[in-house]
Write a structure and sequence with these properties.
It contains four helices and no strands. It has 120 residues and is mainly alpha-helical. It has one domain. Keywords: Membrane, Transmembrane, Transmembrane helix.
């Protein structure tokens, strides 16, 4: 879980610096909510993967598939909630969300593959 917190802190610093230096046209005002959401999803995925590694290595694939489905559903609910509330700057919101989704997915794949190599 510590790498996810560090990764989120790094992204928060990058977003904060970008906001301070006038890149507000590229950042949606709700970027902080998005970071908190992705940190929460990362925590959930980390806990599910720990359970998958802990009990039986054969259960790893179902747990991994469950995390993919859970992430997809949670992301759809998050975006749907904000779009339902009539968030301003819909295109910017979705672009920022997708960028963070790709960053977090790549990071989680890297952490997961590192853990798999260590476990073999």
């Amino acid at each position: 879980m510590l790498p996810s917190i560090g990764f989120t802190a790094l992204l928060a610093i990058v977003f904060f610096v970008a906001e301070q230096y006038g890149a507000t046209s590229w950042l949606h005002p709700y970027w902080k909510f998005m970071l908190i959401f992705f940190l929460s999803v990362s925590f959930l995925i980390h806990r599910l993967m720990d359970v998958g590694f802990q009990n039986n290595r054969e259960k790893f694939v179902p747990f991994y598939m469950a995390t993919l489905v859970a992430r997809l559903i949670l992301c759809l609910l998050f975006v749907g909630f904000f779009l339902g509330r009539g968030v301003s700057g819909v295109k910017l919101f979705i672009l920022n969300f997708l960028a963070l989704y790709i960053f977090y997915t790549a990071f989680e794949i890297y952490i997961l593959s590192r853990n798999l190599r260590r476990g073999l």
